[in-house]
From TrEMBL:
A divalent metal cation binds at residues 8-9, 42, 95. Its main location: cytoplasm. It is found in: Cytoplasm. This is 5'-nucleotidase SurE. Belongs to the SurE nucleotidase family. Keywords: Cytoplasm, Hydrolase, Metal-binding, Nucleotide-binding.
Amino acid sequence: MRILLTNDDGIDARGLAVLQTIARELTDYTHIYTVAPMSEQSGVGHCISYTQPVRFEKRGARDWAVDGSPADCVIAAVHALMADKPPDLILSGVNRGNNSAENALYSGTLGAAMEGALQGHLAIALSQYFGPRNGSLDDPFEASAAHLAGVIEDIRARHTGAVGGYLPFYNVNVPPVPADEVTGTVWVRQGRRPDVNFSATQAESPSRRQFMWIGGGNQHVDVDAETDAAANLGGAISVTPMRADLTAHDLLPGDGE
């Protein structure tokens, strides 16, 4: 099985090294390819570099750094760097921080998985929630390293075909706890943290230039039960199947309307 690895934290990120170790539990190391951004691309979503060329450089026998977004990396791998040996599985992560609830809409980690599905491949986004119970560990990714290979195998066994032309992709979030405190894995819907949004704070430099800092909200607020963020805050790994179909099906008229 050939596995493509990517992320949005950059090719030198600690979480990508964790993912490379996880991938070696799933296949021979000679079948693992890494195509990841040269620099951090957090928050770019499903952005692609449509109006400019994308520079890339070889970093190892099967490793490349791409001066672009995570979705660019998937496109570069599928259509150029791995064109003669397309991946059987695309793994994006392990992200530094959660991509549950509304975070999924901004995530470059999810953007890579979405592009992988659009290109016709099984694609999984993997993220590690941080909090006071795991953030100060020597290895804050230890729960991901201990549990994600099994979660990936379970997703592979359950993976289904396209609906309406769209393959599913999968959003996996590991809870903010040590590895031995993970309570299990649950398949749940995407949630929404109440009253949590990105915001902007103005600032002025000593030279009186004006700036804004974009900041996120509280990641540990109470959320609806049976959702991804609620599962994570309860100690469970969440798996949320997704598709790129953005239609609000509940607003479409039904038969006879």
